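My current task is to audit a protein record that another person submitted. My question to you is simply how this chain folds and whether the tokens agree. This is what I was given:
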Amino acid sequence: MKKIKTTPLAPQEFEVEQISENEANIMAYPFETGYAISLAHPLRRFLLSSSVGYAPIAIKIEGAKHEFDSVRGMLEDISDFILNLKEIRFKLLGDATEAEVNYSFAGPCTIKGGDLTNSEVEVVTPESHLATLNEDSVLNFKIKIAQGIGYVASEDTHDGLEEGYIALDAYFTPVRSATYKIENVLVEDNPNFERVVMNIRTDGQISPLDAFRNSLEVMYAQLAVFNSEISVKSPTTIERTEESPDLKKLTMHIDNLGLSARSFNCLDRSNIKLIGEIALMSTNDLKNVKNLGKKSYDEIVEKLQEFGYEVGGDLSDEIVSGLKKKIEAL
């Protein structure tokens, strides 16, 4: 008979797979069928729309009045210069949310993103090309860099700029891509549970894990409006601490003991699923398992000893507490 539930299973496992400095897979499981996508889809939307980043919002170039102008001795015209600038990703240092940064370059030289790093800003795309200057040419310019989310059109910032500045379309989002896939995962012989795997790639302004953390904070803040009136009772929080090697072994399925079919079936029919459940039992408790004969009892004791534990042995309070939480969650 299928077990009747009153609440869905809460996922307990969380893993981070660091692919590179700016890319990571974030995994959580097990979810009930359909729950993984219900969580993953809004999180992806928040990652792409609400992650905080930095972008140039305006530029003032000495000798140029508008974006269709040119500067003597610079290979690129102003429109190409601005397009190149938008590909350079800045990061303000300290707690600053906005800065005006001055630059001056003399040719001949090739200006790249790394040349714009100074005491106020860091460029996380140092190899991005900005401009090429001929001999005897000089390029002086100022950039306004701001912190923000999403996309802001130049028309929205134009009115607040001083004379001589060219407003820029600002793309703040530091998340380059956020995708997810849903995989089936086996939980107690049931293959219908799900695992969500989110792949997050950023431009270097923020780490993938920090971007994920920020999206969660935004989601919680959006949902908090309902709690002010409805007073939703929070479920018991599952403490997520680093599991000890002993706890990881003891929470393995009894399959890993290599028992004979008869001994395994006796335990399984008594709803004993984890190795730690046997370790928590006294010798009398184990002997009283229904249909468990002496031969099976001796085999289980022997296999458990080979695994490094004793029936009715002494376990630390921390391990016992962790085991009981795992057993209750089954």
